[in-house]
Design goal:
The protein is of the alpha/beta class and 335 residues long. 36% of the residues lie in helices and 25% in strands. It has twelve helices and 15 strands. Strand 11, helix 7 and strand 12 form a beta-alpha-beta unit.
């Protein structure tokens, strides 16, 4: 199959700064792709890299797009190197792949269709780091979120444990809470968090569930995370450690059988991801990279197909942006 190829970069400002152990993030930058096949059907893709998380940089993605000819083929798309995982995802999800479905399609009089809600999925809402979480959760609860993710490893551990104590006694019964350290804890701090969560569960002090602690230690400390996962009741989920397909496969081969947080927008080839998940039946949580509705729809299709164990997916992030419909439609109309 041959495609006429066009692309355009974009910039979106967060409504509020996103603060993690990696630092502050104020502007989301990415690239929108337009692929027109031989029957004039139009597929949209998106490249939304996060270089500090393990993907290529935006500039590397732009350089790759700039060197492509105006007409590309499936052979070109499926030969994108593993060093460009966000490009792999963007180009593959902009064409027919795997199930034969278009990620996002427009054509004829139907106009552009960017969002197809999937009723089989339920979402985890992202809370801001620090005390701000105490004021944010109720708004998200009223919007239907019953699973929350809270960023830790941002402030002093004594302060965060104090806020955590308030948060767990404030959240409604039967809420699920995820703690995301983004690799920002020391071994001792991770052990303390896990011990604290284990004790809460053992003592029956709270009615909510601490679902898991996400990426407590840096990527290079895989063996220590494996040890902690064996010695504690509270589950650990890998995130930065499995940012790309290559990393995901490596962690599996080294014995990880816990939870894998998969960010489709930067993990790499969707078709190869599907094959890996179906072959190994891994426990997954699919998560956002703060993409637009274009990449989000393709990611949600994968999540609906590959999610196991009824876990909430990490796409409850819309409150970090203004409504995108108008500017996204205008950007695509200009391509």
């Amino acid at each position: 199959m041959r495609y006429q190829f066009k692309f355009r970069p974009y910039r979106r400002r967060f409504v509020r700064t996103l603060t993690t152990n990696h630092g502050n993030w104020d502007i989301r930058e990415g690239i929108i792709l337009r692929l027109t096949d031989e029957t004039l059907r139009v597929g949209w893709g998106e490249i939304a890299p996060i270089s500090w998380f393990g993907s290529e940089t935006l500039e590397q993605a732009l350089d790759f797009c700039r060197q492509l000819p105006p007409e590309i083929t499936d052979e070109i798309i499926f030969s994108i190197p593993d060093e460009l995982p966000a490009c792999q995802f963007g180009f593959e999800s902009g064409r027919k792949w795997g199930s034969g479905e278009w990620g996002v399609v427009s054509g004829g009089d139907e106009g552009d269709n960017f969002i197809t809600p999937n009723s089989s999925l339920f979402y985890s809402g992202l809370l801001p780091a620090g005390e701000a979480a105490l004021n944010q959760w109720e708004t998200l609860w009223q919007q239907g979120y019953h699973t929350f993710k809270w960023k830790i490893g941002v402030y002093a551990i004594a302060d965060e444990l104090e806020i955590f104590e308030s948060l767990i006694h404030t959240l409604p019964a039967f809420t699920k809470l995820r703690l995301d350290a983004n690799g920002g804890l020391t071994y001792e701090e991770a052990n303390l968090w896990l011990w604290t969560c284990d004790n809460l569960k053992a003592n029956g002090e709270i009615a909510l569930e601490i679902e898991f602690i996400e990426q407590p230690l840096p990527v290079e400390q895989f063996q220590q995370m494996l040890e902690l996962s064996i010695s504690h009741e509270t589950a650990i989920a890998l995130d930065e450690s499995v940012a790309t397909l290559r990393q995901l496969a490596a962690c599996y081969q080294q014995g990880w059988r816990g939870i894998f947080v998969i960010k489709p927008g930067i993990v790499g080839s969707p078709s190869r991801l599907r094959t890996f998940c179906q072959q190994h039946k891994i426990d997954t949580v699919f998560s956002s990279v703060f993409e637009t509705a274009i990449a989000r729809q393709a990611a949600l299709q994968l999540a609906a197909e590959l999610s196991r164990n009824n876990r909430a997916i990490g796409f409850g992030i819309n409150h970090f942006f203004e409504q995108e419909d108008t500017w996204l439609q205008s950007l695509c109309n200009d391509l």
